[in-house]
């Protein structure tokens, strides 16, 4: 286990225990490093280009240019998703009351003849003189 990561570690190469390049430190937040995997280090797929959180126990050493791992690049971290969505278990489309179809401007447009009657919240320019 190594010292917490700092902003100085961003951009460092990440190597597995065999010395092979498996990614680069993309960001650091609260002492935790997030690694953008190298193309050949992970299976292709929708999550292949997402940064992965490095657990402190998976890091053997941090040098001036490299982060060396005990093993290989950790798998996609479900805990990171849980932290990101913070327990959200609903479909965002359902929360918005939509049907999944894109919203068109016509659905939310205001016609010029709507709401033409002034309310007590509206101030007409001619009424300002009467208020004095």
Automatic annotation (TrEMBL):
This is DUF2171 domain-containing protein. Residues 1-20, 38-132 are annotated as: Disordered. It comes from the Archaea. Residues 1-15, 47-68 have a biased composition (Basic and acidic residues). Residues 108-132 have a biased composition (Acidic residues).
